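Researcher: I'm preparing a figure for a lab meeting and need a structural model of a single chain. I don't have an experimental structure, so a prediction will have to do for now. The sequence is pasted below. Please return the structure as tokens so I can convert it later.
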Amino acid sequence: MKNSKFVFDKLSKIIEQGLITSKDLRSEMLSILKSKRDEIIFRMKLTSKEELEILSKRVENLEKKVSQLQQTNKKKTKRARKS
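Model: Understood. Here is the structure written out token by token.
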């Protein structure tokens, strides 16, 4: 209910200001939605796209190192002979 009231309030303000054309209405709605999206992201404290890419590259590098270490450990271990 709160979200719908917010949308209706914004729409009524747009109509009152005389933004009647569809392009103006569309651009105004997009700007409202983008600002709400940014507000939600800020509240959730999400990382930016650049930070996410950097972190994913770090994880990939660490996974490669772990797999290389596992392969070298398998090569070094030998079975003992039964006597």
